[in-house]
Amino acid sequence: MTPTPIDAWIRPDESVSAIPLVLVDSSEFEATVASLGDAVRRACVANGFRGENGRTLGVTLADGEESIMLAGCNRRDGLFALASLPVRLPEGDYRLDPRGIALEPAQAALGWALGAYRYTRYRKPTRPAARLLVDQDVRARIGSQAEAAYLTRDLINAPTQDMGPAELAAAVRALAERHAANYREWVGDTLLEDNFPTIHAVGRAAANDRQPRLAMLSHGADDAPHVVLVGKGVCFDTGGLDLKTADGMRWMKKDMGGAAHAIALAGLLLDARLPIRLTLLIPAVENAVAGNAFRPGEVIRTRAGLSVEIDNTDAEGRLVLCDALAYASELKPDLILDFATLTGAARVALGADLPALFCNRDEIAEALLAAGTKTQDPLWRMPLWRPYLTMLDSYMADLANSGSSRHAGAIIAALFLERFVPESTAWCHLDVYSWNDTERPGRPRGGEAQGLRAYLEFLRLRYG
């Protein structure tokens, strides 16, 4: 899938006719307006404008030769200070004017781009978003990040009939072709032949044109530090035979959100040309209901050789991930990073905006948290509390796929995944929501990218 181009909203500054956009913070209103002259002050009084966040006001200056647009914003909103303006301002080209409050240019432009996004595959927008003109350096700095966020959102927003396992794998293939990377795919029974039994088990009940598969991209020199990205690609989750309720199933098109994040992050790393060897693994399945669906009480022998008793078919994400993580571990990488819309328990604990980070290396977790703070892309570390491993005990297999208690669901899921990564391998798991339930500036309702900027910053510092 080709992401929505950000050039529709963020353009290199080649226009001389752009409208000057003067940013006004209500806390600095008097000083800003005083510097603009009496005509602006009178217009503000007449229209009751005092720099309120999100309000705009067009003003013609005293000489009658220049019109400017005042826009209220709150500089404390940081990345999202301008995020509401693309859909609030009249259509046109704008350029940040130095007479207003100063914001960091790249941060302001990225927030603008995030606010301009709309998913338009099935419905045309009611009106075009306003465009911000920036210099070439700013455009270069934010372009890949904005496009990665757009791609993540586009993939997640696509309904299941247009985003099944084959289409998700096609997104990996397209990325490989774009960067001249190697691509390999295991489909259907070839998963069994090459020992990916849990990916096959979860996806085997889907229709013939939606067979389970594992897509792999690889790129880079063999002697470079090896980073493996793994993303949960459950394109729709009915819950399997442990069927979800109607409400619980309604938005399960987004259960491939982890895969969308891993694909977008791989694109960011390839664009950045970090001196690493990169492998991307996307297990893509549909957890459907049919006569051959995997059943509660079955025992599956995983790629790692561990036997897993199926306690709940709705705990399927960890099953497709465990084979991919086992394969990733066989590659003996420097670092494994996995992304998954894995548990509702993480949302109960942290809400929609904070992805839950689990990591088996303190120094890596601390560096990721610091990167999240720096890029305004927050993460929250959760513990791999190993005494809870007893909740995964099975009387007949090495472990069960879900806990014996409803307590600590996100931790239990992460502990399950950890069993498939050797202690000698650095590994991080991010439990993401991948979704905005409501409309907010810069965060439109629907699919959302979370943690991408933080991970990119961390990996640049670690390998760049």
UniProtKB/TrEMBL annotation:
Gene3D superfamilies xrefs: Leucine Aminopeptidase, subunit E, domain 1, Zn peptidases
SUPFAM superfamilies in the cross-refs: Zn-dependent exopeptidases
Residues in Cytosol aminopeptidase domain copies: 312-319
GO biological process, one term: proteolysis
Keyword Manganese: yes
Pfam families, per the entry: Peptidase_M17, Peptidase_M17_N_1
Database matches in CDD domains: Peptidase_M17 (cd00433)
Annotated family: Belongs to the peptidase M17 family.
Record protein name field: Leucyl aminopeptidase
Source taxonomy: Bacteria, Pseudomonadati, Pseudomonadota, Gammaproteobacteria, Lysobacterales
